[in-house]
């Protein structure tokens, strides 16, 4: 069974999905959909058209799964339910507190249209969530810890860019090795936000800007930086372009649990990612789950789902027999 | 929904399952079943009866899932299909070449009885398999490597014990750090058996035995040791009991893949386990999947399955809403 894919939104994540779909022989990219003027957008895949988003109203018979690559703040809460009524859809919605509301909205729309809407897919939420769940189920007496990085946080980079006098910025989230080691030892430490991660910022300032003031505004910024030990480096635009143009990321979910009489035996489960390109990896997860969404919907399953609801075999183009032979 | 569990076979794994079931508030151990005289068996759980295996013919209305803790060589090929006709069953069958045949036998029996038979569950096959599958689906351009240890291999320990002049033995499988580092670097090395693992043996010899001959027989033993660099230590029975009585194990599945134009971006996914007790951890995996087997069968699903076919949510006693709130 092959899957015809549409991509809605062509930022970093949209390009990551495009690159992933090209590696899946059973997937075909039908088109990229944008709110911009389609003629202004040049995409990487030769021969694939760019459409205005309005065209989605008329292409339901040409697309099996629409992968929605928008922001969680305003795009996805509106877009995913809207298109779940017309298409099988996937998004990477990551505003944790609003997941119940988003799930309910997508569920209602998808069920009405007989479609499947898979939300909060990617690596966190996504593969990290799946690993937290597996570990808790296997070892009910235990505790999970998630560390992110070393990697670029786009939200934190954007927050720095909004400061007066800043031309550009890149922020790295870095896990504290001592905290990771304490967790891996099975000692179940209580860790504060500050003890788990540090933040390192590379900032291009406007000429003549007050660097001390910018640094102070960064390190004291509530929610983003004030709870962390933050280092600020001022560099040139050339240095930023040369040394910090990638979007690497990663992290690890470390779970420690006990079994046996008097909880005598300790076990450590660790799932870790080291990614050269956050959007290309996230796009790869979305493409694999697009296959699952299409297959499940073909079997008559509709409504909102998350990665928790998808059996691993559905992510693969191979038969059950092949999977057992190669991977079991 | 609570699950009534039977355990067939009371060796290390049976005791591991018993200890896991005790940690799951929604599971109840109904009985332990043995081919031995039940009166000779004392189990750890107070108040739970031990039955002769023959009783299983008459207890189908008292047990929701039977966890079969036998050996893959002769026990499971016979037992799992036999009891899959009467009960939802789970086993940890790990003879890779015979999985197609075992799966077919269990499938036929389970379908006839309207039951579910989950085979090859545990950590390898099991959680390691699931991780190999997820990684291949996400990054189709890539390669998986599995390392085992440091941990006790019971099969290799038994093989040493069969040598003339050996009273007891413990064999550790140890991954080679340089090989792991080469894999993590993303260089996709081709590794021989010898390059991936070493083997370390602690042997208690009979008094006056020819130690040089025993050592030679170990390191040259085909299939078990001849393809590895093997170290042999002769120690006393007291030292073996004092320093080597545990059954620790673990290992890691490392997957490296690429994305993007010219495969420019590398990604490393690693799933690793560090287990104080191999049988208690394996038993914990079986107990979690017992919950899934029971729930799926209650929904009308029958036949043979593996961990590939089970959505993660089925392993948990929590509702979808609770899972999304806590783990997504």
Average pLDDT reading of chain A = 97
Strands ordered across the widest β-sheet of chain A:
3-2-1-4-5-6-14
Oligomer: homodimer
**Major beta sheet summary of chain A:** 7 strands, parallel
> What fraction of the residues of chain A are assigned to beta strands by DSSP?
25-35%
Strand count of chain A: 14
> Which percent bin holds the helix content of chain A?
25-40%
Short note summarizing the structure:
Two copies of one chain form a homodimer. By secondary structure, chain A is an alpha/beta fold. The first copy, chain A, is built from eleven helices and 14 strands.
Show the helix and strand layout.
Two copies of one chain form a homodimer.
Chain A: E1 3-8, H1 12-21, E2 27-34, E3 50-52, E4 65-68, H2 75-84, E5 88-90, H3 99-113, E6 116-118, H4 127-138, E7 142-148, E8 151-152, H5 154-161, E9 166-175, H6 177-184, H7 193-196, E10 197-205, H8 211-219, E11 229-234, H9 237-243, E12 249-259, E13 265-275, H10 278-298, E14 303-305, H11 320-327
Parallel strand pairs in A: 1-2, 1-4, 2-3, 4-5, 5-6, 6-14, 10-11
Antiparallel strand pairs in A: 7-12, 8-9, 9-10, 12-13
Helix pairs in contact in A: 1-10, 2-3
